[in-house]
Write a structure and sequence with these properties.
Elements lengths: L4 H4 L7 H10 L28 H9 L11 E2 L9 E3 L8 E4 L2 E4 L5 E6 L8 E12 L4 E7 L2 E9 L4 E5 L13 E2 L7 E9 L2 E6 L2 E7 L19 E5 L1 E12 L12
Antiparallel strand pairs: 1-15, 2-5, 3-4, 4-15, 5-14, 6-11, 6-15, 7-8, 7-14, 8-9, 9-10, 11-12, 12-13
């Protein structure tokens, strides 16, 4: 064994007993660990997602709405509050705002939606509304309605932003049945959406263009399995997208709006 003088001999600045004394009185130094925080962690309450800024809503509201054609339209939204509606109890839903005469479904994970709480017909009706995608990249209007004793959804802007169609026909959803269409839906633009359900027919329009005209007399009508079923019997939902809505109206009808034609 080497003698201690090898380390603490005459060239050492401090006598051995002072060095040992200092070592006994010093607090141990914890080895540094770059993965650990320098301060103890405390529980942090989750931050509630913020709603859409007021100035953005005012800009959207300032864009004019085209008058609805036809008579007997009944308003379903007064532009002031959620009277007649309730928030759909989706897990991970975002905030629902009523401001600047708009109803805003702020982005959820994945769904945010609303349900109509009053009576609604099961057949022979037409629904119209204005909808705008304000953020996100998926469907900004999933309009769920009754069809007799069944239900279906008109999906506007799904599958990354462009899909339009009915979910579901013969258990095939909007991406894989005869109503499937792809449209370049722009963020920040209002679209007039109309859906008409009559005996043996579903019709739908985007602005003035008729996009869906399908005979359902021999088809099975259903919703795509999953949380969208919470939208029954009448509801509007958005998927991972912030959507603004206005001019939500309904009227009763007694026949299809036009003849059944093959889709171009």
């Amino acid at each position: 064994m080497k003698n201690n003088s090898t380390f603490f001999g005459p060239r050492t600045a401090l006598p051995l007993f002072l060095v040992l004394l200092a070592g006994c009185n010093s607090a141990p130094v914890k080895p540094s660990n770059p993965t650990e925080p320098s301060h103890p962690q405390t529980a942090v309450a989750p931050v509630k997602p913020q709603g859409t800024p007021k100035d953005s809503l005012q800009q959207a509201a300032a864009k004019p709405s085209v008058p609805l054609e036809g008579d007997d339209w009944q308003p379903m939204f007064d532009g002031k509050n959620l009277t007649g509606w309730r928030e759909t109890e989706f897990a991970g839903r975002g905030e629902v705002q009523c401001e600047s005469s708009l109803m805003v479904l702020n982005m959820g994970d994945p769904f945010t939606g609303i349900n109509w709480t009053n009576d609604f017909p099961k057949m022979n009706f037409e629904v119209a509304l204005d909808a705008m995608r304000m953020g996100g990249s998926d469907f900004f209007c999933g309009l769920t309605v009754p069809v007799g004793d069944s239900f279906c959804s008109l999906i506007v802007g799904g599958w990354g932003g462009s899909l339009l169609g009915i979910s579901s026909l013969d258990h095939n959803d909007a991406s894989e049945n005869e109503t499937t269409r792809f449209v370049n839906f722009e963020t920040g633009r209002w679209y007039r959406i109309r859906l008409r359900v009559s005996t043996r027919r579903i019709e739908a329009w985007i602005d003035q263009d008729k996009m869906v005209n399908v005979d359902i007399s021999d088809k099975t009508i259903s919703l795509r399995p999953g949380e969208i079923e919470l939208s029954k019997p009448f509801g509007i939902a958005a998927w991972q997208t912030t959507s603004a809505l206005r001019q939500i109206k309904m009227r009763r009808v007694d026949a299809p709006a036009g003849p059944l034609k093959s889709r171009p």
